[in-house]
Amino acid sequence: MASLNRVTLIGNLGKDPEICYAADGAAVCNVSIATTNQWKDKASGERREETEWHRVVFYGRLAEIAGEYLRKGRTVFVEGRLKTRKWQDTQTGADRYSTEIIADQMQMLGSRDNGQAEAAPAAPAGRAKGRNGKAKAVTAAPAEDEGADIPF
């Protein structure tokens, strides 16, 4: 039987990215992304809104790009897979669980904080223009390709 673990989000960053480096030197970047669902309440006729927060983790070169270009409030497209981690609370000793999205693709959307349209620096973080002018996705590269200077 086949299975699929795939997540696609478009949302806004709740805070600036937190980037750190593993013992082997690999970059790890954590972000919180908010997605909002809006609807009109049938009973009262008023607009309702519900915001869901998602933990997203980038690894390797994609983590470096996210840490450099993403900022609080920025709209971003992320694609990846779900992963649940188990850990113990240091105070109570109780088992805790944390579900996060391990991102393998990212594209910045919207405009920069200064209100200008997207410019060249944003392209490496999400989509890069190919020779034919069409956009291609930037994905997390395997560990052996992380030495490349060009992120796409």
From TrEMBL:
Keyword set, alphabetical order: DNA-binding
Which residue windows does the record flag with biased composition (Low complexity)? Answer: 117-127
What residue spans carry the region label Disordered?
109-152
Show the InterPro entries listed in the entry.
NA-bd_OB-fold, Primosome_PriB/ssb, ssDNA-bd
Q: Is RNA-binding tagged as a keyword?
A: no
Name any one Pfam family assigned in the record: SSB
* Example GO molecular function: DNA binding
Cross-referenced HAMAP family:
SSB
Subunit info here reads: Homotetramer.
Query: What is the protein name given in its UniProt record?
Result: Single-stranded DNA-binding protein
Gene symbol of the encoding locus: ssb
